[in-house]
Structure formats: structure tokens, C-alpha cells
Amino acid sequence: MSQALRAVLEERFQVKVRRLTEQQDMYALTVAKSGLNKERIKPTSPTECVTSAEYFAADAASRANLKICGRYFVTMPAWQFTGFTLQQLAREVSGMTTLFVLDRTGVDGTFTFDLDFAGVDPAVRGDDRFIQALERLGLRIDRTKGTAEYLQIDSAQRPRPDAPAALTEVPARAGSRR
């Protein structure tokens, strides 16, 4: 939470919060025993993608052929990742699964790959779809426990009313009409 937002909430609503941690169920993203699938997940070459600044500096016609490093493109059968770290992948998959995903791969660098759902059994739903798609890349997701940090709201009050604007009557000058 930004300091400015926190200050407004504390002043307007008398919100009192504190940071807490607890052990929660999570997923751990690791490399499979067989290693990364080098046919499906490849190191990103320097010419494969550009920075956001380079993308927006290019003319509109050139942009059609450019990919931004660290971004992904979603199609029905696959998510296409370009210039992505496995740490970024864990964070993105966290937003799509029921549990937070910790990156425990220990692999650095950027990669280009497709998280391909076309080969996943259509009867499989939810988190298992991601687990199967990641397995095809040579990655595993296993349940684990991890430390989660969160803000606990201890108290809040009804907001204070806005201070009424000072209404001042300007006295009429002698001989003037109102």
C-alpha cells in the first residue's frame, strides 16, 4: 500500500493496520527431474524482443512485427511468452491459480516459450490445466507451505464529514444594489 493512500485512510477513516505473516498453502515451481524441455523453452535471443520504450518509439507499421520483452500474448490454445524469466512466469501463473506460486527453479535468464493448453486433456479444469501445461515445459508445480505477508485492519471508523466551506457574507456597500 502506498504511503499516500495509507495516510489518507488513516486520517479520513482512522484506519489502524499492521503487517502480519503466517504459513499458508502455496505452490512451488521447480524444474522437473528430466530438466527443462529445450525444444519448448529456449533462451531469448537479443533480437527476439524489444523494450517497451523501443516498441513505442517504432512507427506503427514496424510494431506489428515486434514483441515486447517480459510480456505475453494470449491465444485460445496457448500463452506465448517472449523474454520472460521463470520468476515472472511464477507471478503470472499465481494470478490464474487458486494458490500463490513461488519460484523455486533457481534458473536465471530470459526465455521464449508457449504455455500450450492444446495438448492438455479437455476434461481437466482449474489449476491442473496449468500444472499439465507447465509439465510439458519441464517444470513442476507441487503443493508446499510458505510465509505470506498481509495487512490486517485492526479498526476503522465512519468517515469524518467534509468540513463545510466557510460561508461568508460580503456586506453590501452603501448605495449599491444587490
In short:
By secondary structure, the protein is of the alpha+beta class.
Secondary structure: number of strands: 7
The strand order across the widest sheet is 2-6-4-3
Order of helices and strands: HEEHHEEHEEHE
Low-confidence stretches: none
- What oligomeric state do these chains adopt? single chain
What number of structural domains do the residues give? 1
**Overall radius of gyration:** 26 Å
Structural class category:
alpha+beta
* Rounded mean pLDDT score: 87
Helix content: 10-25%
Shape: extended
Q: What's the tally of helices?
A: 5
Biggest sheet descriptor: 4 strands, antiparallel
Strand content: 25-35%
Tell me the distance between the termini.
52 Å
Which characteristics define this entry?
178 residues; four-stranded antiparallel sheet; 22% helix; extended
